[in-house]
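Researcher: Please predict.
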Amino acid sequence: MNYLFYLGHPAHYHYVSNVLPELKKKGHDISLMIRDKDVLIELTKHLNYDKFFVRDIGTRSLFFRVLTILKRQLILFAFCLKKKPNLLIGTSIEITHIGKLLNIPSIVISEDDASEIPLLVKYGYKYATYILAPNCCDCGLYNFKKIGFNGCFELTYLNHSFVPKKETIKHLFGNKNRFYIIRVVNLNAHHDNGKKGISNEILNRIVDHLISFGTVHISTERNLPKNLEKFQIRLEPHLMHNALYFANLFIGDSQTMSAEAAILGTPTIRFNDFVGKLSYMQELESKHNLCFGFNSSQEIQLQNKLEELISNPKLKEDWLIKRKLMLAKSDDITSFLINLFDKYPQSL
């Protein structure tokens, strides 16, 4: 089989990082279409697959977004005519359009509920052959296309096979025996419109609160105020999961990093206006009790929870126990995906 994987975000690479080499071992031909997003190119530059990179055009305006999508479609169309893949996989409307046009099956990978990604639903789900999503995820009108599993995609790379290496991140502890990671993002994707996260004012207050208890590190997509620049973490992308595992606490407005930290057994606070709206995060919060979510109007609740967590001397130990329980209740999603793609379409 000849597969094309569209990777539009660093998380998308991680979802399939353990799947791709197994498919290659089984004799399948793998190609990657990789978007220039955050650290994605850095993460994938070492991969020995047929790969090509695509960059966005211009600004974040609607006009340039449309131009960017058209550019990707032309690139993908030309690739498909040349390589003739048997299956298109990824989180992108482009694979569904070109798949429909050239009669190539497409599988959209998604963790977000349909209500929070209306454009992908309207212009992507409609034309997709299948949607690969957690059982808890609501695909709206297209639930009939869903291939479901028990858990979330982060478990494909942060499960029992993940072996943390403390020696790679020892410097993050500084001169204290605790360190905390804060993640702030831009929230400028189309589905982020009107959503708020951790403002600079709130960020300052969080740092002021934590600094006397341990070393503080900020991972950021945006420019930080001058007084906070000294806290910015500079870490090789492949070491970030080690940092998240050994951190004593994580606070962020990123869905992906919040999920990763929680799954790794790190007490997690998520602060943004997606709280209560994403089923897979709700599972981590209410079913597994691994993280806490507060929206942008709940700063007082955030500060109270922060105080409660850092005053618990057994905090990390408690969360690692919760992590073990969560892993025991989740599917082996990596094996599930390998089997799905390796034996497609019989595996359906």
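Model: The CA atoms of residues 55 and 260 lie 26 Å apart.
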